[in-house]
Amino acid sequence: MFLIRNRNNFYLFRTPRRLYVYVISYILFLLCFKIALLPADENTIKHYGHGFTPNLRIYTEDYLRLIANESKHRFGPYNFVVYSKPLSPNRSMKKAERGDEINVLFKSFWDGEYVNEDEMERMDIPVFFGMLGLRSVIAKPESLAQINSIRSLQQLRKFSAGFGARWVDSEVFRHNNLNVVEANNYRNLFPMLTNGRFDYIPLGQLEAKQAVTENQQFYFDFVIVESPKIFYPMPVYLYVSKNANGLYKRLNYGAQRAIKNGKMENLFRQHFKADLPQSSEKDAKVPLILLSNPRFSKNKNQVFTKNFLEMYGHHFIPIDK
Fold first, then answer.
1. Omega prior to 228 cis, within 30 of 0
2. Which one of 36, 182, 258, 314 is CB 3.0 to 4.6 Å from 263, fit for a cystine?
3. pLDDT-based confidence at residue 38 (cuts at 50, 70, 90)
4. Cβ neighbours of residue 19 under 8 Å, at least 6 residues apart?
5. Phi/psi of residue 290, nearest 5 degrees
6. What 3-state class would DSSP assign to 206?
7. Are residues 135 and 125 in the same domain?
């Protein structure tokens, strides 16, 4: 700015055009500098904050933060962004493939209408240590005695299970000739159980206790049937968009490091210690009805089931008929 005098002896401030150019150029420089400091794709995790029951969502978020932190010394700081708008499974996969709003997704399988697994990279580490396939039976108190007496797959077929719409679990149960009733969403399962639309809800053991606690305040009492339990292979993997340049390399590095130093198992046990199978030698073993998952070959079903029983089999009596 500078000072001039007009013919009426008034002093005016005027800004020369060249100064405007300098100011605008300086602002653009600062913006470009700020953008340059923002993390690149490999350092920005765009997580979808839905798709599981609440305690599993918390674990998956902590899981991502753990493996990102484990890679900081090599890849530097990172941004963590949560996409909070609920989406159908298909839409969440499509968004993850593009990588602009979501670039990581936890899934058992990458399939659906117009989705392409070639757009994703899968980390071959079961996120829940194979435990998601262990199912606890949630029922009404008046059904407890009947369900508690089940000792075979054939007896289980006399009852109907409730699942959310398009859950892979429904496919597993139908494949094993078990009766299934589907709800539009997870929240509708409990009022439907109250109203007798089906006999039980087989939720993952890692989530069953919290689900019962949360829903008892709104509906009638529910109980977790101690026996039998149900198991079928249902590993969950972390998928990373190929459009998030370098992110897979970073997260896989952090995951391998967290496995080696024990932090991954420690995180899992911190979250789910109270939900893991626990018994002493004096306790009676619990009947465990084994189902096959049609998404896997016969050989893979056997491998996944064998791995689970090697870890937790001393708590159970396996039943496959």
1. yes
2. 258
3. very low
4. 1
5. -95, 130
6. helix
7. no
Cβ atoms of 199 and 223 within 8 Å: the answer is: no
Is 130 or 166 the better-scoring residue by pLDDT? 130
Q: Please, are residues 232 and 133 in contact by the beta-carbon 8 Å criterion? A: yes
Task: State the amino acid at position 144 in one-letter form.
Answer: L
Q: Which domain holds residue 7?
A: 2-37
Say yes or no: 148 and 218 in one domain: yes
* Residue with tokens 């399988």, as numbered in its chain: 109
CB 45 within 8 A of CB 104: yes
Q: Are residues 281 and 198 in the same domain?
A: yes
Confidence of residue 34 (pLDDT cuts 50, 70, 90): very low
Query: Could you tell me the CATH number of the domain that includes residue 198?
Result: 3.40.190.10
- pLDDT tens, 165-198? 878 899 999 999 999 999 988 888 989 998 999 9
pTM of this prediction? Answer: 0.78
Question: Which among 169, 201, 178 is positioned nearest to 188, based on CA atoms?
Answer: 201
* Contact indicator for 299, 165 with CB cutoff of 8 Å: no
- ∠ CA(311), CA(253), CA(134), 5° rounding? 25
Residues 60 and 101 placed together within one structural domain of the fold: yes
Burial of 31 (0-12, 13-18, 19+ CB in 10 A): exposed
CB 251 within 8 A of CB 68: yes
Tally the domains of the chain. 3
pLDDT digits (tens, 9 = 90+) for 84-101: 888 888 899 999 999 999
Cα radius of gyration rounded to whole Å, the chain: 27
Backbone angles phi, psi at 79, to 5 degrees: -105, 145
DSSP H helical ranges for the chain? 17-37, 54-69, 72-75, 89-98, 144-148, 153-156, 168-175, 189-194, 205-216, 247-260, 263-272, 298-312
Task: Give the C-alpha separation, 264 to 47, whole Å.
Answer: 19
